[in-house]
Sequence to fold (501 residues):
Amino acid sequence: MTITEENPTAAGAPSFDSLDPRTGAVVATHPIHDEADVRVAVARAREAATWWSGLTYAERADRLGAWKSLVTQRLDELAGVMSAETGKPHGDALLEAALAIDHLAWASGHAKKVLKRHKVPSGLVMANQKATVEFRPLGVIGVIGPWNYPVFTPMGSIAYALSAGNAVVFKPSEYTPGIGLWLAKTFTEAVGKPVFQVVTGLGETGSALCRSGVDKLAFTGSTATGKKVMAACAESLTPVLIEAGGKDALIVDEDADLDAAADGAVWGACGNAGQTCAGVERVYVHEKVYDEFLVKIVEKAKGLQASDDEGSQIGPITMPSQVDIIRRHIDDAIAKGGRAILGGPEAVGDRFVQPTILVDVPADSTAWTEETFGPTMTVAKVASMDEAVARTNDSRYALGSAVFSKSRGMQIAERLRVGMTSINGVITFAGVPSLPFGGIGDSGFGRIHGPEGLKEFTYAHAITKQRMKPLLALTTFDRTEKAEQQLGKMMKMLHGRGGKK
Ligand code: NAD
Fold:
């Protein structure tokens, strides 16, 4: 049920507009797919899944390779669609799409190695058995995506689910439907079968996808919607993957390269206008370098201007309602005694928000506790790295994090209760296809990317095959007393001597 130019919205059918957030102009009108439409798409996907899962890993990799080449050849066109629907600068759109292509290449290239049937040790008790496990496709995966990284984030599910042998029905955000359709259109052009389809609409279409009988639902979006998705999927015991919000911290140690840390903090906080799940929102700086660090971040950030000018490095806030949230967080920080050393309440416009740096903000302010999703950061002085670690971990969100330190980066990173950490860099983990990506707590659960991301869209099928008759016949009603005694002796030998008295 991919609705494209060749298959436009039927006259009179419910529809919605996608808008250019820089100007408010209508980019395109798309149908609102209802429950029946979604079920039709899932049924078609299920049929296609039979063919797709029957291919060998190499045959699937060939087809995914053809899609990857097509997307790469048309990278500029894709970046154009992305800029039109999100307002993000062309260069940012290119970077995002390039990373997604790299993930597609990794996922299709590594699926066989990670998922194919392989031997595992059978242990002494079952030594007569050959034990193997294979990770098999689940069938049809429903993917619900956000608008902030409308290619990179859903592709973390789509590329890995397809590589594992599943068909996919994707519901892109209502702010970025054209991007989802572009991806599905190029897939069909390259592969020729409806293995990857798109349904468009608002939250209700997403809700219908949760209830459509898909074999797993991969959701990326806000924590609040993630809870609704999980509740809807619970009705049919449909498993879920939840990639939700974040409030990521960046830690600056006393021996850090302050220029690099300042650069990372400003880019991590303001890149993509701050609309990054793993963006930098909180910064904890060692007291010995705090003042110097503040001077450097203000120096760096004050040259940035959010606007729709050609060449601007910061675009608009894509979702209009987010502007109010950003304003509320800044106002709350100031009302509670904080100060804006750059930007502040006046930095929040109708569509654009200028970089804002907040200091002296009490710990109970929403600027510390809630996801802001704007080009802002809240910075605090800490007396030690112990304090930095404790404050980083004191959040209901736990997605990514960053540490800048010359001598203790690894030591600090290993104490953080988060899904990912980059040392002396920001968000670099997202670009490494062999690393799992995801969070804990209110940031969700499950993983995209890496071997874990491939396995996420499979079920394990374990097989034992008898190689020879057992020395001890245990799984039979003919079990002898002698066999039981021998089992007891063997257990004592194997497991009875460990541990402290
Ligand atoms: P959102 O929760 O508003 O919407 C996400 C998607 O869910 C959209 O496609 C929407 O139509 C759909 N939806 C809404 N209501 C639904 C319902 N009841 N049932 C099913 N689907 C429903 O999120 P958003 O504003 O599009 O995205 C921003 C959020 O996504 C931020 O919180 C950000 O941190 C998070 N995010 C997380 C990651 C990650 O990997 N952890 C990546 C990108 C974005």
Q: What stands out?
A: The first strand starts at residue 15 and ends at 19. The first helix runs from residue 35 to 54.
